[in-house]
Amino acid sequence: MHTCGVESTGTKPFGANSRIGFLMRNILFENLDDAALEDMSARFVVREHDRHQYILFQGMPPYALMIIQEGYVKIVKESGQGKEILVELLGPGDVIDAVAIIEGRPHLATACAMDRTTLLVLPRNEFLSIIEHNPKVAVQALIAVGDRLRHAYEVLQRLAARRIEPRIANVLLMLAGRAADDSAERVVLQMRLTRKDIADMVGAAPETTIRIMSRWEKAGIVVRDNNNYIAIEKVSQLRRIALEENVCESQEHCL
Questions:
Q1: Cα separation of 212 and 253, whole Å?
Q2: Which of 62, 136, 153, 196 would suit a FRET pair with 229, their CA atoms being 20 to 30 Å apart?
Protein backbone atom coordinates (compact mmCIF):
# COMPACT_ATOMS: atom_id res chain seq x y z
CA MET A 1 0.00 0.00 0.00
CA HIS A 2 1.37 3.38 -0.96
CA THR A 3 1.51 5.98 1.78
CA CYS A 4 3.02 8.84 -0.20
CA GLY A 5 1.30 11.77 -1.80
CA VAL A 6 2.02 12.86 -5.34
CA GLU A 7 2.75 16.57 -5.54
CA SER A 8 5.77 18.53 -4.33
CA THR A 9 5.10 21.63 -2.23
CA GLY A 10 6.85 23.87 -4.71
CA THR A 11 10.03 25.06 -6.32
CA LYS A 12 11.93 28.21 -5.43
CA PRO A 13 15.31 29.85 -5.98
CA PHE A 14 18.11 28.89 -3.60
CA GLY A 15 20.38 31.50 -1.98
CA ALA A 16 23.72 31.67 -3.80
CA ASN A 17 26.00 31.51 -0.75
CA SER A 18 24.30 28.54 0.90
CA ARG A 19 23.96 26.79 -2.46
CA ILE A 20 27.67 27.08 -3.28
CA GLY A 21 28.68 26.06 0.24
CA PHE A 22 26.52 22.95 0.11
CA LEU A 23 27.56 21.89 -3.39
CA MET A 24 31.28 22.31 -2.80
CA ARG A 25 31.01 19.64 -0.08
CA ASN A 26 29.23 17.23 -2.44
CA ILE A 27 31.27 14.41 -3.97
CA LEU A 28 30.17 15.39 -7.50
CA PHE A 29 31.48 18.94 -7.37
CA GLU A 30 34.19 18.98 -4.70
CA ASN A 31 36.99 19.17 -7.28
CA LEU A 32 35.61 22.15 -9.22
CA ASP A 33 37.39 25.49 -9.01
CA ASP A 34 35.55 28.49 -7.57
CA ALA A 35 34.57 29.98 -10.95
CA ALA A 36 33.15 26.70 -12.32
CA LEU A 37 31.34 26.00 -9.05
CA GLU A 38 29.73 29.44 -8.97
CA ASP A 39 28.63 29.18 -12.60
CA MET A 40 27.21 25.70 -12.14
CA SER A 41 25.48 26.36 -8.83
CA ALA A 42 23.49 29.28 -10.27
CA ARG A 43 21.51 26.76 -12.33
CA PHE A 44 20.07 24.87 -9.35
CA VAL A 45 16.67 25.53 -7.81
CA VAL A 46 15.13 24.11 -4.64
CA ARG A 47 12.16 21.78 -4.62
CA GLU A 48 10.42 20.97 -1.35
CA HIS A 49 8.40 17.87 -0.56
CA ASP A 50 6.26 17.22 2.46
CA ARG A 51 6.36 14.03 4.48
CA HIS A 52 5.14 10.97 2.55
CA GLN A 53 5.12 12.73 -0.85
CA TYR A 54 6.46 11.02 -3.94
CA ILE A 55 9.49 12.58 -5.61
CA LEU A 56 9.65 10.30 -8.65
CA PHE A 57 8.15 7.02 -9.77
CA GLN A 58 9.59 3.76 -11.00
CA GLY A 59 9.53 3.82 -14.82
CA MET A 60 9.67 7.62 -15.17
CA PRO A 61 12.30 9.07 -17.52
CA PRO A 62 15.10 10.90 -15.67
CA TYR A 63 14.51 14.61 -16.14
CA ALA A 64 16.76 16.16 -13.48
CA LEU A 65 19.65 15.66 -11.11
CA MET A 66 18.29 15.77 -7.54
CA ILE A 67 20.51 16.21 -4.50
CA ILE A 68 19.02 15.94 -1.02
CA GLN A 69 19.80 19.07 0.99
CA GLU A 70 17.62 18.29 4.01
CA GLY A 71 15.48 15.33 5.01
CA TYR A 72 15.46 11.65 4.17
CA VAL A 73 14.20 9.72 1.15
CA LYS A 74 13.35 6.04 0.84
CA ILE A 75 13.91 4.25 -2.45
CA VAL A 76 11.45 1.42 -3.01
CA LYS A 77 10.49 -1.06 -5.71
CA GLU A 78 7.01 -2.45 -6.10
CA SER A 79 6.64 -6.22 -5.88
CA GLY A 80 4.27 -8.28 -7.99
CA GLN A 81 1.88 -8.29 -5.04
CA GLY A 82 1.80 -4.48 -4.95
CA LYS A 83 3.97 -4.20 -1.81
CA GLU A 84 6.84 -1.76 -1.55
CA ILE A 85 10.29 -3.28 -1.04
CA LEU A 86 12.87 -0.99 0.53
CA VAL A 87 15.98 -0.70 -1.64
CA GLU A 88 17.85 2.20 -0.07
CA LEU A 89 17.66 5.03 2.46
CA LEU A 90 19.10 8.38 1.34
CA GLY A 91 19.94 11.49 3.33
CA PRO A 92 21.56 14.94 2.99
CA GLY A 93 24.16 15.09 0.23
CA ASP A 94 22.93 11.98 -1.59
CA VAL A 95 21.91 12.01 -5.26
CA ILE A 96 18.63 10.31 -6.11
CA ASP A 97 19.20 7.57 -8.72
CA ALA A 98 22.39 8.91 -10.29
CA VAL A 99 22.56 5.83 -12.53
CA ALA A 100 19.36 6.79 -14.39
CA ILE A 101 20.54 10.41 -14.73
CA ILE A 102 23.79 9.35 -16.38
CA GLU A 103 22.42 6.50 -18.51
CA GLY A 104 19.19 8.22 -19.55
CA ARG A 105 17.15 5.11 -18.83
CA PRO A 106 13.89 5.10 -16.82
CA HIS A 107 14.15 5.10 -13.04
CA LEU A 108 14.25 1.56 -11.68
CA ALA A 109 12.64 2.47 -8.37
CA THR A 110 10.36 5.00 -6.70
CA ALA A 111 11.58 7.78 -4.38
CA CYS A 112 9.42 9.01 -1.50
CA ALA A 113 10.11 11.66 1.14
CA MET A 114 10.18 10.16 4.63
CA ASP A 115 9.98 13.58 6.27
CA ARG A 116 9.91 17.21 5.15
CA THR A 117 12.58 17.14 2.41
CA THR A 118 14.44 19.80 0.46
CA LEU A 119 16.08 18.96 -2.88
CA LEU A 120 18.52 20.82 -5.10
CA VAL A 121 17.34 20.24 -8.66
CA LEU A 122 19.25 20.65 -11.93
CA PRO A 123 17.75 19.71 -15.33
CA ARG A 124 19.43 16.60 -16.73
CA ASN A 125 20.56 18.28 -19.96
CA GLU A 126 22.37 20.94 -17.95
CA PHE A 127 24.07 18.32 -15.79
CA LEU A 128 25.22 16.41 -18.87
CA SER A 129 26.60 19.66 -20.29
CA ILE A 130 28.55 20.20 -17.06
CA ILE A 131 29.99 16.67 -17.31
CA GLU A 132 31.00 17.27 -20.93
CA HIS A 133 32.92 20.43 -20.06
CA ASN A 134 34.24 19.29 -16.66
CA PRO A 135 35.88 15.83 -16.78
CA LYS A 136 36.45 16.01 -13.01
CA VAL A 137 32.69 15.95 -12.49
CA ALA A 138 32.36 12.91 -14.77
CA VAL A 139 34.95 11.00 -12.74
CA GLN A 140 33.29 11.96 -9.45
CA ALA A 141 29.89 10.95 -10.85
CA LEU A 142 31.21 7.44 -11.56
CA ILE A 143 32.61 7.23 -8.03
CA ALA A 144 29.28 8.40 -6.59
CA VAL A 145 27.37 5.80 -8.62
CA GLY A 146 29.69 3.05 -7.39
CA ASP A 147 29.23 4.16 -3.78
CA ARG A 148 25.45 4.18 -4.08
CA LEU A 149 25.35 0.72 -5.70
CA ARG A 150 27.50 -0.71 -2.92
CA HIS A 151 25.32 0.95 -0.31
CA ALA A 152 22.12 -0.34 -1.91
CA TYR A 153 23.58 -3.87 -1.89
CA GLU A 154 24.40 -3.51 1.81
CA VAL A 155 20.82 -2.40 2.52
CA LEU A 156 19.40 -5.44 0.73
CA GLN A 157 21.75 -7.69 2.68
CA ARG A 158 20.68 -6.17 6.00
CA LEU A 159 16.98 -6.51 5.20
CA ALA A 160 17.23 -10.09 3.94
CA ALA A 161 16.76 -11.46 7.47
CA ARG A 162 13.84 -13.85 7.82
CA ARG A 163 12.92 -12.45 11.24
CA ILE A 164 11.28 -9.05 11.56
CA GLU A 165 13.18 -7.94 14.67
CA PRO A 166 16.66 -7.88 13.04
CA ARG A 167 15.17 -6.08 10.04
CA ILE A 168 13.74 -3.29 12.21
CA ALA A 169 17.03 -3.04 14.10
CA ASN A 170 18.97 -2.71 10.85
CA VAL A 171 16.71 0.04 9.50
CA LEU A 172 17.08 2.06 12.71
CA LEU A 173 20.85 1.51 12.67
CA MET A 174 21.09 2.69 9.06
CA LEU A 175 19.25 5.88 9.98
CA ALA A 176 21.41 6.27 13.08
CA GLY A 177 24.52 5.98 10.94
CA ARG A 178 23.43 9.09 9.05
CA ALA A 179 22.70 11.06 12.20
CA ALA A 180 25.81 10.40 14.30
CA ASP A 181 29.27 8.89 14.44
CA ASP A 182 29.49 5.09 14.60
CA SER A 183 30.93 5.31 18.11
CA ALA A 184 27.84 7.05 19.54
CA GLU A 185 25.83 4.98 22.03
CA ARG A 186 22.83 7.34 21.97
CA VAL A 187 21.43 8.69 18.69
CA VAL A 188 18.31 10.75 18.01
CA LEU A 189 16.75 10.14 14.59
CA GLN A 190 15.86 13.59 13.27
CA MET A 191 12.56 12.62 11.68
CA ARG A 192 9.06 11.83 12.88
CA LEU A 193 9.07 8.13 12.12
CA THR A 194 5.88 6.27 13.01
CA ARG A 195 5.65 2.58 13.72
CA LYS A 196 3.70 2.18 10.50
CA ASP A 197 6.55 3.87 8.61
CA ILE A 198 8.93 1.31 10.07
CA ALA A 199 6.56 -1.55 9.27
CA ASP A 200 6.32 -0.42 5.65
CA MET A 201 10.11 -0.20 5.32
CA VAL A 202 10.74 -3.73 6.58
CA GLY A 203 7.68 -5.37 5.01
CA ALA A 204 6.04 -6.26 8.33
CA ALA A 205 2.52 -6.03 9.71
CA PRO A 206 2.06 -2.87 11.82
CA GLU A 207 0.90 -4.99 14.76
CA THR A 208 4.18 -6.94 14.77
CA THR A 209 6.21 -3.75 14.57
CA ILE A 210 4.23 -2.22 17.45
CA ARG A 211 4.91 -5.26 19.66
CA ILE A 212 8.65 -5.18 18.94
CA MET A 213 9.00 -1.42 19.39
CA SER A 214 6.96 -1.52 22.62
CA ARG A 215 9.22 -4.24 24.00
CA TRP A 216 12.32 -2.21 23.09
CA GLU A 217 10.85 0.87 24.76
CA LYS A 218 10.20 -1.06 27.97
CA ALA A 219 13.79 -2.33 27.85
CA GLY A 220 15.09 1.22 27.41
CA ILE A 221 16.63 0.49 24.01
CA VAL A 222 14.58 3.18 22.25
CA VAL A 223 12.39 6.05 23.49
CA ARG A 224 10.39 8.93 22.04
CA ASP A 225 11.81 12.35 22.90
CA ASN A 226 9.83 15.57 23.42
CA ASN A 227 9.79 16.24 19.65
CA ASN A 228 8.35 12.76 18.99
CA TYR A 229 11.65 11.67 17.45
CA ILE A 230 12.92 8.14 18.07
CA ALA A 231 15.99 8.20 20.30
CA ILE A 232 18.13 5.06 20.29
CA GLU A 233 19.42 4.88 23.85
CA LYS A 234 21.44 1.68 23.49
CA VAL A 235 22.98 1.48 20.02
CA SER A 236 25.26 -1.43 20.99
CA GLN A 237 22.28 -3.50 22.12
CA LEU A 238 20.42 -2.72 18.90
CA ARG A 239 23.47 -3.92 16.96
CA ARG A 240 23.34 -7.23 18.81
CA ILE A 241 19.67 -7.62 17.92
CA ALA A 242 20.48 -6.89 14.26
CA LEU A 243 22.86 -9.88 14.28
CA GLU A 244 20.42 -12.29 15.93
CA GLU A 245 18.99 -13.75 12.75
CA ASN A 246 19.60 -17.31 13.90
CA VAL A 247 19.11 -16.80 17.62
CA CYS A 248 15.68 -17.26 19.19
CA GLU A 249 15.62 -17.07 22.97
CA SER A 250 11.83 -17.44 23.15
CA GLN A 251 8.80 -17.46 20.92
CA GLU A 252 8.29 -13.78 21.68
CA HIS A 253 11.75 -12.97 20.29
CA CYS A 254 11.20 -14.96 17.10
CA LEU A 255 8.95 -12.39 15.44
A1: 8
A2: 153
* SS3 assignment, position 14: coil
Rg of the chain taking only CA atoms, in angstroms: 19
What are the Cα distances from residue 153, in Å, to 68, 108, 159, 174, 232? 20, 15, 10, 13, 25
Any long-range contacts for 31-34 (C-beta under 8 Å, 24+ apart)?
Answer: 31/136, 31/137, 31/140, 32/134, 32/136, 32/137
Residue 1 resides in a domain = no
Averaged pLDDT, groups of 10, the chain, 255 residues long:
47 60 80 79 90 94 93 83 77 88 90 93 90 79 72 63 85 83 85 83 88 95 87 93 61 46
Same domain, 153 and 57: yes
The domain total for the chain is 2
Exposure of 2 in the CB half-sphere (CA atoms within 13 A): 17
Q: Residue 19's CB: how many other CB atoms inside 10 A?
A: 22
Question: Residue 84 in 3-state DSSP?
Answer: strand
pTM of the complete model:
0.75
Question: What is the full DSSP assignment across 180-225?
Answer: S-TT-S-EE-SS---HHHHHHHHT--HHHHHHHHHHHHHTTSEEE-
Specify whether 195 is located in the same domain as 143: no
Provide the residue type at 230 as one letter. Answer: I
